Amino acid sequence: MQHRIIVLGAGYTGAVAAGRLARRLHRDDVAITLVNAEPDFVERVRMHQLAVGQQLRPRPLGDMLAGTGVELRIARVTGVDADRRTVAVLDADDGREAELAYDTLVYALGSGWNDQGVPGTAEHAYEIAGRPGARRLGERLKGLEAGQSVLVVGGGLTGVEAATEIAEARPDLDVSLAARDGLGDWLSPKGRRHLRKVFDGLGITVHEHTSVTAVEADRVTTADGTSLPAAVTVWTTGFAVHPIARATALEVTDTGRIVVDGTMRSVSHADVYAIGDAAMAMGPGGKPLRMSCASGIPTAWQAADSIAARLTGGKLPNAPLRYYNQCVSLGRREGLIQYVTADDRSVGAALTGRFAAVYKELVCKGAAWGVAHPMLGLPTRRRRVLRRPAAATAATTAETTAAAEASA
To answer: Which residue ranges does the record assign to the FAD/NAD(P)-binding domain (predicted)?
Structure first.
């Protein structure tokens, strides 16, 4: 009987994990199913581009997975029973409910926007955490007349990229950004100087050390009572994980992220792995990995290789989960590559300008290429799954987990 592996979510992490598992395990021994609500792979790191009307290359998941042996199921996940090892889904084609049984589950449902509970945000603000939100914002931006105001709330990577993209694409609009801290305060001095230079060149007004406490249709209110005009408010203050995990028996954090060990295995359920934004995984120095593509893809590699190792009796992976740089697009002509320590602290070195923009574009294309060509890249080494009694497998769980944690 084939070992049933179900991967939930076909974003960067889920799609990469499914493809890597297909490359690692013998096709006769495993049945790999990738469940996703949409038939296309969405380049989430480009949603700010989609919002300003740029055409993104379509990437049908069916084409990307052709020949891999991975079965694609277009369905919305409605529940996970980690004790019974089943997943409840709602099929997109006919709307029917179904239950899928698994032997190993890879949870990669990711995250969406987080309104932080600020009054009026859900009703009046726009988000770019996914394709529907980006398209909705794009339609609204098309309808704006010259001189109208767009306020981006959130001074992190998503907010900076959104503000610069909108200001470059629509120089006739009054674009501003509200940041809780200083603009680019996580960057090196060189990075901050370049960021301010680009903002000034694009005419973006920056409201630093400003917290938004309420959103209305045409304005926002800040913590000190100031009213800032905003025909459109774009909310980019962080992400919230998919709520499914919180409703399961899996051990999760207060924010709903699944607690995993160094191999991305759930600490409460040995047959469940969590990757990407859904996982509370630790990086260098015991610091949690931030929600990002830079974190997600390495966790997908780690989980896939760990699953393959455990099923085939191989050696557990010992790849470090670390950071190298932060890649920021500042419109289509400018960019910023901030080099960082392993635990994501900025160092003095940074690339700026047109070269950095090209660098960031290559990173985005490389990530999408890796998803679109799951059977290329690293050598294919399909190993046979060991046929061991369940009792023997259970007996080795503590040993393999302890070894993985010691090497992580």
So the answer is: 4-304
Domain membership of residue 258 as a residue range = 3-112+240-322+378-407
**Is residue 125 domain-shared with residue 165, that is, in the same domain?**
yes
Bridge pairing between strands 30-36 and 71-81: parallel
In this prediction, residue 337 carries a pLDDT of 97
What pLDDT is stored for residue 275 in this prediction? 97
Based on the domain organization, do 80 and 151 belong to the same domain?
Answer: no
Domain co-membership, 177 together with 286: no
- Specify the DSSP element, H or E, that contains 196: helix 189-202
User: Could you say which DSSP state residue 176 is in?
Assistant: E
Residue 366: exposure state from Cβ atoms within 10 A (0-12, 13-18, ≥19): exposed
End-to-end Cα spacing for the chain: 32
Name 72's Cβ contacts closer than 8 Å, sequence gap at least 6: 10, 33, 34, 36, 39, 61, 62, 65
For 351-391, what is each residue's pLDDT tens digit? Answer: 999 999 999 999 999 999 888 887 766 556 678 999 754 43
Residues 295 and 401 in one domain: yes
pTM for this structure? Answer: 0.91
Are residues 14 and 33 located together in one domain of the fold? yes
The mean pLDDT value of the chain amounts to 92
Q: How many domains does the chain have?
A: 2
Choose among 145, 127, 144: nearest CA to 136.
127
The pLDDT of residue 370 is 86
Q: Is the pLDDT of residue 109 over 50?
A: yes
